[in-house]
Write a structure and sequence with these properties.
Blueprint (H helix, E strand, L loop, with lengths): L1 H7 L3 E2 L4 E5 L9 E3 L18 E3 L4 E2 L14 E2 L12 H13 L5 E2 L2
Antiparallel strand pairs: 1-5, 2-3, 2-4, 6-7
């Protein structure tokens, strides 16, 4: 459907953008919808079920649809739940404890 709408408005979907099925305390589930499918980036198909919550991230451009690096720095972060962090500096351990206490699974801002 994204492709059909983009053709109608003469725009191109941006590569590398995924929409995710959400669950409680998890904003990027395993079931995904790809914005622009390429030869080296594909996702498995799945069916919508009653009660599913989908966070749609649809980005389009009037160009060729390839993202480029910008000058803006990242302001929203999300920790990897699968990764074990071994932090050496005391301030880093304090920061990590604060992130785990306030938002263990959700994205956070450094402010």
């Amino acid at each position: 459907m994204i492709k059909k709408v983009c053709e109608e408005f003469s725009v191109t979907p941006v590569e590398g953008v995924l929409s995710h099925k959400m669950k409680r305390h998890l904003i990027d589930g395993n079931d995904t919808i790809i914005n622009h499918e390429t030869a080296d980036m594909k996702v498995a198909e799945w069916e919508f079920q009653p009660g599913d919550v989908i966070g749609l991230d649809i980005y389009v451009t009037s160009g060729e649809g390839k993202p480029k690096e910008g000058d803006y720095r990242t302001t929203v972060f999300k920790r990897e739940l699968d990764t074990q962090y071994s932090l050496k500096i005391n301030k880093a351990r304090q920061f990590f404890a604060e992130v785990n206490k306030k938002n263990p699974t959700l994205p956070f801002c450094l402010r």
